[in-house]
Structure formats: C-alpha cells, structure tokens
Amino acid sequence: MRTLAEFIMKGRSQAVLVAVIAAMLPFLYWISAAAVCLVTLRRGVTDGSQLLLWALLPAGAWALVGDPTAVIVILGSYLLAVLLRRSMSWIRVLVGLIPIGIVASFGLELGLGSMLDQVLELVSQQESGAVPQLQALASYDLKVLIIGAVTAFHAAVMLASLALARWWQACLFNPGGFGQEFRNIRLKPVFTLVLVTAVVLLPNIGAEMVRWMPLLMLPLIVAGMALVHGIVAIRELAKGWLTGFYLSLALFGPYVLTLLVISVAIDSLIDLRSRIPARN
C-alpha cells in the first residue's frame, strides 16, 4: 500500500490515474476516495478538489446505473479530509461525520430506492400469510433498519478511507504520526453525552428514528477503539491483545460495544489514559 501512496504522490497524472481506475472498478471506490483524501491532506484543498472531479466521472457513471455508493463515499471522504486538514482534529472529523452521514443517508435512500423495494417485496412474499397491517409494519421497520445499516456502512467506509490516506501520509512524511493521532482520540464530554442520549432515546421517539442509531454509534466505536489502542501502547502490551479485542468485537458485538460505550463515556470525563501508569 505504501508503494501505491508513493505512486499517487509522484504527480497529478499518477493521482488521476489511480483515482479514476479505482472508481471505475467494482468495490475499489475506497481506494479512489483514499487517493483524493491523500492529495487533499498533503497538497491542499484546491488540488484535492481537482482530483475529486476526475474521480467523480466514473463514480457518476455508476450512480446513473443505480449505484450511488462510489459518489457518496468519495465525496464524503473528501469533505472529511478538508475538515481534517483545516482543523487538524480527529474529534471535529467525528463530529462532522454525523451531518455528512445524514445527507448521505437520504442520497442512498433515493439512489437505492428500487433495490430496497425489491428486498422488501421479497420479504412480503415470505410473509404473505401474515395479517396485512402487521406485514406492512414489518416491511416499514425492515426498510428503516436496512437504510440505517447501509448509512452506517458508508459512513464507516468514508472514515476508513480518510484514515488510510492519513496513514499513507504518515508513512511517507511522518512515520508513526498516524498511530499517535489515533491513540489520542478522546471525545469531549458534551459530544459524548449528546451521542449516548440520542442512542438511548431515539428508539422511543419513533421507528423512523432508529435509522440514525448506527450512524451515531460510529464516533463512540472509533473513540473506544482508540482507547483500547492507547492502553495497549501505554502498557506496551503484545499485539495479541488487539487481535483478541477485535475477535471479541466480531464474536460478541453487542456486549463489547456496550462496554466500549461505557468506557468512552468514562474516558471523556476523567481521561483514562492519563491515569494508567506506563509499564516501566
């Protein structure tokens, strides 16, 4: 991956080549988004916006045939990169991820409308014997859940593309810098309180509000991952601890996520990493 980053930074033509080809190929749009972010972070917003326009050409073609994923991820990643370059703060990036994700959600709902309808039609066929009112309610709830999950996935890919670009930048110009930045991510108490309160209360407001829960959980999850990485680094623990953490996250997701949210809430108040003694 470092070789790819070096190729992107060789010149404008090389960056355009990577961004366009990656956006053109299925499932590689995240590389195009990372290339746009890297140029934006290193060379500035103007150069990044020019590369963005090139990347949006093949991405726009995908959108015309019914898949807006590439357009939404590349554009959203670029906006996050601009925010990171100007603020030099991952906290502001996580805050900005929420409104960008909300706009992206409506774009996905519009662009993937026919696909969602097909999924719901299949569900309706499976439940053809159900009471019509209950069947309609189940289909509506399922649509809300699907849109929420798809929104969170796209927002996560935006964030991952930006992180990849920042890691590329650190590898080329500031070795180890990205790891230090990531481990220092710590949410402000007010932001944490707003997120936790929203996640708890939104399901009680209405079924439509459930779609925003996965998106609102993303900053908490990222902050929790940063906390775990920070503790492992401070205590100089083996990398196996991180492997075990991600395995437990995959196997026992809801329980580990609950612990992460609680840990992030505590960390935002008392800064756990500053209270943990170094190994030596």
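Above is the first protein from milestone M3; the second protein from the same milestone is given next.
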Amino acid sequence: MLRRDQVTTRWTHSARSKFRGQRRSSRGLGWVRAIVLLQRIADLRPGEGAKVLAAGAWFCALMTANGALRPLRDSMAVAGGVNDLHWLFTATFLVMLAAVPIYGLAVARCGRARLVPVVHRFFALNLLGFFVVMHGLVGGESDAVATWTARVFFVWTSVFNLFVISLFWSVLADLFSGQDARRLFGLIGVGGSIGAIAGPAIGGAVALWVSPSWLPLIAALLLELSLVAMRRMGREPSEAPASPVPDDPVPDDPIGGRAFAAIPELLRSPLLLGICAYVLLLTMSSTVLYFMQAQIVAVSFTDEGTRTAVFAGVDLSVNALTLAIQALLTGRLIQRIGLSWSLATLPLLCALGFACLAIAPVLLVLLGLQILRRVASYAVSRPAREVLYTMVDRSQRYKAKSLIDTVVYRGGDALTGWAFTGIKALGLGLGGIALVMAPVAGLWAGVGALLGRDQKST
C-alpha cells in the first residue's frame, strides 16, 4: 500500500510530465506552422523550411541587437564631436586591422559550431562593460568620461556589427550552394529585417522612457538568444536537400590554415578582388551620406534622447520597407534579373540620389536617399553579394571575407572620412560633394555589373 503522500507525489510528477509534454507539443506545432507558412510564400523545397526558419531567427536576434545599438551609436557620434568623425573612422579602421589576425587565429583553430559562441560571448562581455560604465558605476559622471565613452562605444559598435554579421553570412555560405543561396538568402534576410524593425523600436523606446544606457545590456541578452537559434539550425535535419554543398564541412572541424592567410587568399582570387572594389565604392557612398547626415542632424537636434529617437525612426522606416520586399520579391528577383542587375541596382539608385542631393542638399532629401539606399542594400544588394561567397573555398569564406567585410570596409570609411573633411576645408559645400559622388556611384554600378556577369550559375 502506498501512503497518501506517496500517491500525491506520484500524481504531481505525472501531471507535471503531462504538462511539459503538452507544452513541448505546442511549441513543436508552432514551429511546423511557421515552416508551412514559409513554404506558401517562398520558393522552398522539401527539407529546407526548418533550417531557413532557424537561420532567420538567428539573423533576427543579431539585427535586433544591432538595430537597438545603432541609434545610440549615431547619437554617440554626435556627442563625441561631429568635427572629429574622421578620427573615429580612422580609429575604427586601426582596431579592425588589429582584430582580423586574432579572428583569423580563432577561425584556424575552431569549427563553426565553436567559433560562433566564442565570438558572440566575447562581444557580450564587452557590452556588459559598457553597461556598467554608462551607468556611472565605473569612472564617475564627468564630461571627459562621457565624451570618451561615446567615442569608444562608436568605434566598438562599428567593429561589432561588421564582425557578427560577416560571421553569420560566412556560416550560411558554408551551408547553402550558389543556386540555393539565390533563392533563400533574401528570405533568410526577412528575419534580419524583422530584427532591424524591432531593434530601433526598442532603442527609441528605451532611450525616451528609461535611459539609453540600458541598451548594451539588452543587446548582450540578444546575442545569447542568437546562439540558441544557431544551435537549432545545426540540429535541423535536411529531409531532401536540394543541391547540397560539395565541401560542406563537419561543424566541429577546425577550418585550419594560418592566422594571416586572409591577404594572400584575397590577392590570389579575381572574384575576391572584384568584391573588394565593390565594397570600397559602397563604403565611400555610405560614409559620405553618414557625414552629411551627422552635420545636418547636429544642427537640427541638440538633445541626445531626441537624436536617438529620430535615428530610430529612420531605421524603423527602412526596415519596414525592406521586410516587405525581402518576403515577397528578393529571392525571385535575384533569379529573374540575375546577379549583375542585382549588384548594380543599389549603385544606380545612389547615383540618382546624389544628383538630387546636389540640387537640394536638405534634410528631407538626405533622409529620403538614406532610406532608399539602405532598403536597396538590405533587400537586394547584400543578399546578391553574399551569394558570391558560395563560389569560393571554405577558408576564403571566413578569412578573406572577414578581411573585406571589416578592414576593407572600415578602411574605405577612414579614407572617405579624411577626404570629406579635406574637401569641406577647401570650401566645397554639401551640394558640391554630392555632385562629385554621382559619377563615383556610376563607376560602382559598372563594377557590380561586371562582377555579376562573370559568375556562372552553381
């Protein structure tokens, strides 16, 4: 005979087990429904839905963190001194230059299943440090500390967002073939757009209702959530994979090679050199627009909370438009018009925008061009550019790609920053600078068209 307390205990354990089973079943059913919805709106094949959904969730968490920090970073850039922006871009480039060999060493010794947590948790610890400093728990509340915290945070954020996003796309280039990437990278980008919508909304709300200093802590938590999605993607089986990647490695296998292999790999590959030229011209246009935006916004708004909220509003508008395009058009558009036009679309829009800005260099036109540029970048140009990395070997996907996405990108920022400052010192106004940039964007479009034309379907 069982005593009453034993019967009660067994009944309690049974009830709890049943509840947990129902809860797991409910979560599983929700996951299946999400996959079915994806298959209805996108060109998905059997076995791809779960992996695409997990990849989108990973990207969503990353872009939510990045989107929450971006308005704070832009506000910090103004707080650190608008006239010192070229120094901040130079410092970012130097930090990137020092970080790439360290990252190359990590890539050589870690498989992707280990590399991603190492990188994410390193940045999460940095974010916790910023959270402590911004709350005045370390260093006090002096103006000097606030100014230097703003400058360091700007540089750090510029390094952070490129490294984690570059690593994400490196992993995806490992997992998908070129043909599959054309179909699916835009759809996976939907997750990033959802995150990029949620991020600025969080950033603006926290900045106005609580304090911008809480944003680093929120971003650190989101980085940890992104690891959950990454692991889920690695566990998803492929029932009937379409066009499997021939050299898809075991996740725990080290990538190998030398820590400084990125530069030789870049110089040996015409494709990577072409991507390098494309990224340099892209960053030139982006940096000029960023400097122009900082100049105009600094005059228009003086309060840090208001500036952060305005930048968040711009980000929210950009990503709402991007989400609609990525969900419904990107995958089919890249397949329909090809890589050449996909890569040339953004530069052509920028050339037109710079021409309009040369005629009317005002806030409304500038913000309109920024929105148009970023929508085209996220919805079309970035997925098309990432497809190119499916055509190189595994070491190049991680090492040379990180060099291009970080050092080359931020090097272009630094050079353009100094050029912008020098041209302004000579007396050329914002309209004149925009006029100079229009033909540069035209050259960029030509590079994109040639780069896409030379790539055969894989």
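Note on the second protein: The chain has one domain: 46-236+259-453.
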